[in-house]
Amino acid sequence: MTIERVTIFHTNDIHSCFDNWSQIVAHLKAERDEQTLYLELGDHADRSNPLTEAMVGRGNVELLNEAQADFVTIGNNEGVTFSKDQLEALYDQATFPVLLANVLHADGRRPTWAKPSFVHTLKNGIKVGMIGLTAPFVHFYELLGWQVVSPTDTLAEILPVLREEADIVVLMSHLGLRKDELIANEFEGIDVILGAHTHHVLPTGMYINDTLIAQAGKNGAFLGKIEIEFDRNNNLLYRKEATLLDVSNQPTDEATDLLLADMKEKTSAILHERVAVLPKCLPVQWQEKNEAGQLLCDALTEWCGKDIGMMNAGVLIDSLEKGTITKGDIHRICPHPINPCVVNLTGEELEETIKRALTRELTHLELKGFGFRGKILGKMLFTGIEVDYYGESIRVLGQPLEKGQLYSLATLDMYTFGYLFPAIAESKNKHYFMPEFLRDVLAWKLKQIWT
Predict the structure, then answer these.
(1) For residues 45 and 74, is the Cβ–Cβ distance under 8 A?
(2) Residue 292: other Cβ atoms inside 10 A
């Protein structure tokens, strides 16, 4: 029996957290050989980091180039937090192919910067076939001018061909663990699913049928490693194992350290651009109505072209001091990749939402996810809506709330996801404003008032 060895390193959901990135790169450079691949599974970029914001993700690509990434797919942070033009240009200087099978132009053309799949032949002759798939945030992609198609339909089309061509088949998935499990149950012929999106930590992976699923958490806490042994004589995969490596205490990579330092200097210069000059301090208090928060809530409502709006005070992380306000200041206090949104609610649903917003459960919630990058949600602020302390008296544009009336509410897209406000999440009529973020609305209003 002739055994050939293949090693695949993988990262996912770095989210522009570079605390361990240099150590990861150092380990990759030290350990890789001609039978090694390094695959990146998406959400490497996150615009809550000033470096990614200032360099529009191009710095992330430089870092992946230095890490000698072999193949990359995108996550939702690359796909729907950059404008279409920005994503089109993101990988111009990449030294690696981007594998992405289920995102197309609106007219069905495949983007020039992406391939649906690829068969890579290693030095030992083993052929590794890879497919890239990302989470189908259909409505968001459509608003940005993309078409995102069903991952499973795409997989059903590509997998049989790839299985014929390759010795080992790897799915590069930014779909989330639950979807990866369903795929492993539904499809035969996938040897390894390298996962992302849901930030699961799978120390030794998990096996479903003949498929090994691996995922390495988030923020670069771990470097994933897959070790495969392939029986050349019988043309079959003999062994596959997944491990997670904590490299945080290992030496750093000098070239990566220098690159990060250079990026920080460029970021400082870019974000130093003036937005406004404030004649006074605009303090932020998460559990109180405050001028900065109310200004943003009013601006959000105006931006969306509506008369009523609501948002939590906690989306502003810090106060704005008197004097010159720069792009960096705006990003620092409002780093979230959150878009303005309009939802239609009945008066009854609006009342239910307002009363839930006033509970301690929500005002003191230390939220993680849905685009929120702050500490706690804080007090709910309103525009065009007057609410007493307990929500027993609610007036909309000076009139008592009518349960049977339909209201069009300007708010934040993060409320349309998950469990925060069920009536908003379940609303059938939502309109998202993209690609602008909440901080763009804040900058627009500050500039308008205090240029």
Answers:
(1) no
(2) 22
Residues 227 and 375 in one domain: no
Q: Do 278 and 260 belong to one domain?
A: no
Separation of alpha carbons 350 and 41, rounded Å? 39
The neighbour count for residue 1, using CB atoms within 10 Å, is 8
Q: Give yes or no for a contact between 28 and 182, defined as CB atoms under 8 angstroms apart.
A: no
Q: 249 and 289, same structural domain?
A: no
Q: Give the count of domains, the chain.
A: 2
Q: Which of 240, 267, 294 is the last residue of a domain?
A: 267
pLDDT by 10s per residue, the chain, length 451: 688 999 999 999 999 999 999 999 999 999 999 999 999 999 999 999 999 999 999 999 999 999 999 999 999 999 999 999 999 999 999 999 999 999 999 999 999 999 999 999 999 999 999 999 999 999 999 999 999 999 999 999 999 999 999 999 999 999 999 999 999 999 999 999 999 999 999 999 999 999 999 999 999 999 999 999 999 888 888 899 999 999 999 999 999 999 999 999 999 999 999 999 999 999 999 999 999 999 999 999 999 999 999 999 999 999 999 999 999 999 999 999 999 999 999 999 999 999 999 999 999 999 888 889 999 999 999 999 999 866 679 999 999 999 999 999 999 999 998 789 999 999 999 999 999 999 999 999 999 999 8
Q: What's 93's DSSP letter?
A: T
**Residue 157 contacts by C-beta under 8 Å, 6 or more apart in sequence?**
none
Residue that terminates a domain, selected from 242, 267, 292: 267
Question: What is the side-by-side strand order in the sheet with 71-72?
Answer: 114-115, 98-99, 71-72, 36-40, 3-11, 223-231, 236-245
Q: Domain of residue 153: give its range.
A: 3-267
Shared domain check, 439 and 311: yes
